[in-house]
Amino acid sequence: MAADRLVGEALEVELERLLEEGASFPPSQEFVGSALISDTAVWDRADADPVGFWEEQARELVWAKPWDTALDDSNPPFYDWFKGGEINASYNCVDRHVEAGLGDRVAFHWHGEDNSQRTITYSDLHREVQLAANALKDLGVKPGEVVGIYLPMIPEVVVAMLACARIGAPHNVVFGGFSAQAVAERMEVSDAKVLITASGARRKGKAAPVKEQVDAEINGRDGGLPSLEHILVVKHAGQDAPMLDGRDVWWHEQLQSADPDCPAEPFDADHPLFILYSSGSTAKPKGILHGTGGYLTGAAWTHKHVFDLKADKDVWFCSADVGWITGHTYIVYGPLANAATSIMYEGAPDYPHQGIWWELIEKYKATMFYTAPTAIRACMKWGAELPAKYDLSSLRLLGSVGEPINPKAWLWYHLVIGGGNCPIVDTWWQTETGHIMISPLPGVTNAKPGSATRPLPGIRAEVVDEAEGNEVERGRQGLLVLRGSWPGMLKTLYGDDELFIQTYFSRFGKETYLVGDAARQDADGDMWVIGRIDDVVNVSGHRLSTAEVESAIVGHPAVAEAAVIGQSDEQSGQAICAFVTLESSHATSDEIMAEINQVVADRIGKFARPKRIIWSDDLPKTRSGKIMRRLLRDIAEGRALGDVTTLRDPAVMAELEKQVAAQASEEG
Ligand code: PRX
Hints:
Layout: H1 8-21, H2 29-34, H3 41-48, H4 50-58, E1 69-72, E2 80-83, E3 86-87, H5 89-102, E4 106-111, E5 117-121, H6 122-138, E6 147-150, H7 155-167, E7 171-173, H8 180-189, E8 194-198, E9 200-203, E10 206-209, H9 211-219, E11 230-234, E12 248-250, H10 251-256, E13 267-268, E14 274-278, E15 286-290, H11 293-306, E16 315-318, H12 325-337, E17 341-345, H13 356-364, E18 368-371, H14 373-382, H15 385-388, E19 397-401, H16 407-417, E20 424-427, E21 461-464, E22 477-483, E23 492-493, H17 497-505, E24 512-521, E25 527-532, E26 536-539, E27 542-545, H18 546-553, E28 559-569, E29 573-582, H19 590-603, E30 612-615, H20 629-636, H21 651-667
Parallel strand pairs: 4-17, 6-7, 6-8, 7-14, 8-11, 11-12, 16-17, 16-18, 18-19, 19-20, 29-30
Antiparallel strand pairs: 1-2, 3-13, 4-5, 9-10, 14-15, 15-23, 21-22, 22-24, 24-25, 26-27, 28-29
This protein binds adenosine-5'-monophosphate-propyl ester.
């Protein structure tokens, strides 16, 4: 109960005690007693026959036609799960539940940032999804044609995704925090035929135009966007929108005139369900392409078993945005495939107040909560007194995702939010993996703060050495890899099979997927994921590439060169730090700094703006001209410099250190 929760000094003392003790946390007897999985037999079962294990899980879905081959692995890394099978994801997320008599079950308790509320049942989804699917068909969308979605966290985003799935049109959702320019680019590279967006969005009490900005970007481009035939506009936040005759249509009008019946068509198991652009080592985001049958199998199984879901009783709350993979898999496809009831919140975690999540948990009696470490750290900063004001006793399980969780944040989450009673599942996975890969199973695993523990049943994750890709001994750091394939594995990078192979399979062969993270396995076999080994930065759980930010910064006419690194940050995990060299004709100034920030906001989105810009006359480069980011990281984090002998001009570092010190003292 609220009154029992630790706050203030007592909490600090307990946190320190547990940190020192290095405690581990087995599930309570009570939790084990009612858990879906309560012993390790499931790993034995999956180890003995991983493909058979996943087949068993796939049978939980409804297939229009059963598969002929469970896994065709004859052409790695192009794996074909449930080959010959036919399925419709929207049918599995909606219709079959209505047919089973669950039409009145709430799919979403939607809560607006202005305190407005909507209850969406499975019958409501059934009706709306069919209308939206026909609306898309009326606009000429055919199976295989891409539909872009750029919407705030409103129920229409889910309806739009499921409508696409229903007619076999892969969706390409762009997170609402990306700029209109990023949206236009993603529409262009995915050849989107229709874009579904909103007239406006609510942003912490203010309404911001969305469609208008998208228009400005698209109409301002030479030749516009050739593939884009229509923009479907959801009226939201009381905003009107400019509408171009013949191209733009209102969502409500288009749905009103659509036929209410749209039977779900079966598609091949590997039919593309969606593309989600994500950052890699290059400036160009990669279009990660997911299929249907395998992805849905992995999404549904992991959502049910990692979170121990009892769909008839639980209320699920995932705080992610639907525009990221966490939202795709654990707001839309996983929960809906399992007929779960979810909370969906429109706003920011600190609006209208910093206790809004706890208010929602109390109001809707959430039983599970899934969020990112960066959010937990923000809540820690706001104080344990805030959640203590709410009744969080309905919670029985907590989850974490997106970045390594530091043990102190884990313990705070456990004590303050979980009241010491809720297992925490620290779930490791990626946009590419589609669903959770390494995580405790809450009724079995002895959780350790900071470790994602074991690969799930049916998943083979290993820590290997850089040179040969052989498994390293326990306790040693190495590269995290995934062997073979798993149902939710990305199918390819959209339109670029070569890049797919080169990015993930050029290092250790076509049957070993290179994750891009460093990790270590402890003596018990538990995994500790350390962080990225490539130039991907994780800012508040948002994946960004240093090259992408650099390319935005050098778009400013006064900038000669830029190098971006991820600097450790207590709050956001990592923060963007940019070393910028201006053209000699320009002097450094606060104005240019503000302009550089604006360029990044326009090009990518506000969340990608550097936290720190360091002016530098020169950058440390090797003799072949490669920027040594390791040295920049050392400088930014105030560490002793590593080996500088390979530099073309070692004096650059001394100069840079002087500049950083001078700038730091100026900034006070
Ligand atoms: O570095 C890992 C980190 O996030 C990366 C994947 O980012 P993204 O594709 O945006 O997906 C995030 C949500 C699934 C990984 O390569 N990461 C994700 N979860 C964890 C994590 N690092 C440590 N522990 C985790 N639980």
